[in-house]
Design brief:
The complex is a heterodimer.
Chain A: E1 3-12, E2 16-25, E3 28-32, E4 43-46, E5 51-54, E6 56-58, H1 74-83, E7 86-91, H2 102-115, E8 119-125, H3 138-144, E9 148-150, H4 159-172, E10 175-178, E11 191-192, H5 195-200, E12 204-205, H6 208-224, E13 227-230, H7 236-247, E14 252-257, H8 284-296, E15 301-303, H9 311-314, H10 331-342, H11 346-351, H12 355-361, E16 375-385, E17 404-414, E18 417-421
Parallel strand pairs in A: 1-4, 1-5, 6-7, 7-8, 8-9, 9-10, 10-13, 11-12, 13-14, 14-15
Antiparallel strand pairs in A: 1-2, 2-3, 5-16, 16-17, 17-18
Helix pairs in contact in A: 2-3, 4-6, 6-7, 7-8
Chain B: H1 23-37, E1 54-59, H2 65-76, E2 80-84, H3 97-106, E3 111-116, H4 121-131, E4 138-144, H5 150-164, E5 171-175, H6 182-193, E6 198-202, E7 218-220, H7 223-227, E8 232-235, H8 240-243, H9 251-258, H10 262-265, E9 273-275, H11 288-291, H12 298-318
Parallel strand pairs in B: 1-2, 1-3, 3-4, 5-6, 5-8, 6-7, 8-9
Helix pairs in contact in B: 1-5, 1-12, 2-12, 5-6, 5-12
Classes of the chains: A alpha/beta, B alpha/beta.
Chain lengths: ~425, ~325
């Protein structure tokens, strides 16, 4: 298929912005601006008023396979991903069983390839069964397709094991993606330990549950010189620690979940279980610090931390409801909303969901000729209402239900093929 | 966001928490309760206000005292009362909270009196009833997790008003395990709404919520200092499981610092009243001479509690 995407605003996080046409042939970007000699498009997409960007990269999308198919499937969540303009995604290892065996990873990769939707990059479990006692076969898991290793949302209590894991990973150049999470502090908590938890009588999770673990991780990573990515930063104090580590010359990257840019503990309202997330929604001051850190580059990446949850697991009292939000389809509009509200330039904002996560995965995210034609075309002005019927994901668990957002994906291309079009 | 307890006309249709309740609604409950207090003194202790109504006591957490007072209150209103101790029945069979509710609604329940170990469970039920078009079924929170125990809060308010007449100019101290106390949270909201001059909480840091002062209270760690000049003292029950663990070294040490003795009571105003939501741990949070002393209004609280619960059930059942 040879395509011409005409009359669009082309935004490349590296080379900048231009107006005009983009030409696709043989799964790659053939040219930008003027057509290559002899190019004849099979189809011309007139995308006047729309923006073309490299396909979005979301580094935390739970596909719920294997084992949790009653919550979602590869089919449902990869369809949701491309509906959200996401062409590459990494999936955390918190499946059932966890991604701790090469066979599980191979099966997942194989199933994803057969579907021809978004590219899937599995993140392997750091310890067998995510039980925190024995390292997984990182070498074989890497050969099977794992791009990094993580402990998902399971706290790792054994700091000796963590240090060994870092030493071993550093030996072979494997990356560790870790969410700082103390095993004891706030272990029975369900909400940020602040005025809202005080009022509602919800057991609290103090900020120190994150910062103590972050200090441990940063200290050990410095010693071991491991490739480290810090996941789901939630509070101002963590931001300050990461800013300091980066200023110190440490090669560390970090991400924030997109809902943390817009919500805080006050949004729990009267116990809305859709606001139960891990890490918890923090104070409005924490939210402000996260937004500022994302703008100044202290936080590198925005992800959705997509977690489709079935209604039965959510329609419970707040403390018993399963944490998580569905979000892969909201990554783009919520990032655009942050950029608009805080006056962040579009290319800078889009880099946080394209180029930066692509770099972490070691893949391309560019509109340059020769790059893979993984593309997202969206109408930044198109308004839509988040609702059970407007979400493709099997999970309808989001506190944004009923909220009007601007930014709708018109067309998603993966390897030069149109996989989603509205 | 509309207060989920009020209907479109501003009438109280559920009682979930005292937080955010308009002052007139609280005053109306207390005034209505005053009329019901006299019923308990009559030979025939019944009025026909809830005749033909089915009140379901849904206790997902064990309680004898609260359930009994709700049962008496509903029976004095001539309602049919059904007691269900769900903690030992359906949830163990895998039925979800909302499944249980749907089933009981199908049995034509009119009022649910709900106790649950999880904060927010009554809100979830009220929200669900609205979603399934059963807004005519009323929910009365009989205690949810650490969140709220509004009828206890109301009976405490009733007791204070009975003895002190007006909340303006009053200083009220709440002593003990505020962190885990739904009683304290409800009482604090009620007291601040009614214009109490000063509300104090007294306890060690391990038993106070992180952001206690955001509830509109003054925080004291020294009980002697905190009791000075108080008009009413509310002692909270210390649960057994808190006594010997990471929150407190021992019950004896707790009593030494935060137990109410005659000597400490002498620091409050001479006409100060002593309250306790029950059941008491004598020798842990309160010394027997104080509990049984002339300043103690702990037993009148129980009597008022029935009248307050009658008032609440008759008011919510009257809302449409």
């Amino acid at each position: 298929m040879r395509l011409e995407i005409a009359n669009a605003r082309l935004v490349d996080p590296v080379t900048g912005e231009r107006e005009g046409s983009l030409y696709v042939a043989d799964g790659r970007i053939a040219a930008v601006g003027a057509a290559p000699v002899g190019f004849r498009a099979d189809r011309v997409l007139d995308m006047r008023g729309c923006v073309v960007v490299p396909g979005l990269v979301d580094i935390a999308v739970r596909l719920r396979e294997p084992g949790l198919e009653y919550k979602a499937t590869l089919e449902s969540e990869l369809a949701a991903a491309i509906a959200g303009g996401v062409t590459s995604l990494a999936c955390p290892p918190d499946t059932d069983p966890p991604l701790d065996e090469p066979g599980l990873v191979e099966m997942l990769k194989h199933r994803a390839r057969m579907l021809h939707l978004a590219h899937v990059y599995p993140v392997g479990a750091l310890t067998a069964g995510l039980e925190g006692t024995a390292l997984t076969q990182m070498g074989e898991l890497t050969e099977a397709g794992c791009v990094a290793f993580s402990h998902a949302d399971v706290a790792l209590a054994d700091t000796d094991l963590l240090r060994r894991a870092m030493q071993y990973a550093a030996t072979f150049g494997y990356a560790l993606w870790l969410r700082p999470n103390d095993p004891y502090l706030g272990r029975n908590g369900v909400a940020h330990d602040g005025d809202v938890a005080t009022r509602l009588g919800l057991p609290g999770i103090p900020v120190t549950a994150e910062t103590i673990a972050l200090a441990t991780i940063l200290t050990l990573a410095r010693e071991c010189d491991v490739r480290l990515h810090v996941c789901r930063v939630s509070c101002a104090r963590s931001v300050a620690m990461l800013r300091e580590a980066k200023a110190d010359g440490m090669a560390v990257s970090c991400d924030v979940a997109v809902h943390h840019l817009h919500l805080c503990d006050g949004d729990i309202g009267w116990f809305d279980a859709n606001t139960r997330v891990v890490p918890p929604l923090r104070s409005s001051a924490d939210r402000a610090a996260l937004r500022a850190a994302l703008a100044d580059g202290t936080i590198d990446i925005v992800c959705s931390d997509h977690a489709p949850v079935d209604d039965d697991s959510k329609q419970l009292p707040f403390g018993e409801a399963e944490p998580g939000v569905t979000g892969v389809e909201l990554l783009l509009p919520l990032t655009l909303r942050w950029a608009a509200e805080d006056g962040v330039a579009l290319p800078t904002a889009l880099a946080r969901i394209t180029r930066a996560p692509a770099q972490l995965l070691g893949i391309a995210a560019s509109l340059a000729p020769g790059a893979p034609a993984d593309l997202c075309v969206f109408d930044a002005q198109a308004a839509w209402t988040v609702g059970r019927d407007t979400l493709t994901s099997q999970g309808k668990n989001t506190p944004f239900l009923g909220v009007d957002l601007a930014g709708r994906v018109r067309c998603t291309l993966v390897d030069g093929e149109i996989v989603h079009e509205t | 966001m509309r207060n989920p307890q009020l209907n479109a006309r501003g009438e109280l249709t559920h009682l979930l928490t005292l937080e955010g309740l308009p002052i007139d609604v609280i005053r109306n409950i207390l005034d209505t309760a005053a009329q019901f207090v006299s019923i308990g003194e009559r030979e025939v202790k019944k009025v026909p206000l809830l005749r033909g109504n089915a009140v379901f006591n849904l206790f997902f957490e064990n309680s004898t005292r609260t359930r009994t007072t709700f049962e008496i209150a509903a029976k004095r209103l001539s309602a049919d009362v059904i007691n269900l101790n769900i903690g030992v029945s359906s949830t163990n069979k895998g039925e979800t909270l909302l499944d249980t509710i749907d089933n009981l609604v199908a049995m034509d329940a009119d009022v649910f009196v709900v106790r649950h170990a999880q904060s927010g469970a009554p809100h979830l039920i009220a929200q669900h009833l609205a979603q399934v078009g059963r807004s005519h079924v009323h929910v009365v929170n009989a205690g949810d997790g650490r969140h709220a125990h509004p009828t206890q809060g109301l009976l405490d308010l009733y007791t204070i008003r009975h003895y002190k007449k007006d909340f303006h100019g009053l200083t009220v101290a709440i002593v003990g395990d505020v962190l885990h106390s739904r009683v304290a949270r409800s009482l604090i909201h009620g007291l601040t709404t009614l214009g109490t001059s000063e509300v104090r909480v007294i306890g060690p840091r391990t038993l106070l919520p992180t952001a206690a002062e955001t509830l509109g209270v003054r925080v004291y760690h020294d009980m002697r200092e905190g009791l000075r000049g108080c008009d009413a003292i509310v002692m909270l029950r210390l649960q057994n499981e808190r006594m010997n663990g990471t929150l407190l070294p021992s019950a004896a040490e707790y009593f030494k610092h935060y137990g109410l003795t005659q000597e400490k009571l002498a620091l409050a105003r001479p006409d100060a009243i002593v309250m306790h939501p029950g059941p008491m741990n004598r020798g842990v949070e309160i010394d027997s001479p104080v509990a049984d002393g002339e300043r103690s209004v702990i037993l009148p609280q129980v009597t008022f509690g029935i009248a307050v619960r009658m008032a609440v059930m008759s008011i919510v059942a009257g809302a449409r």
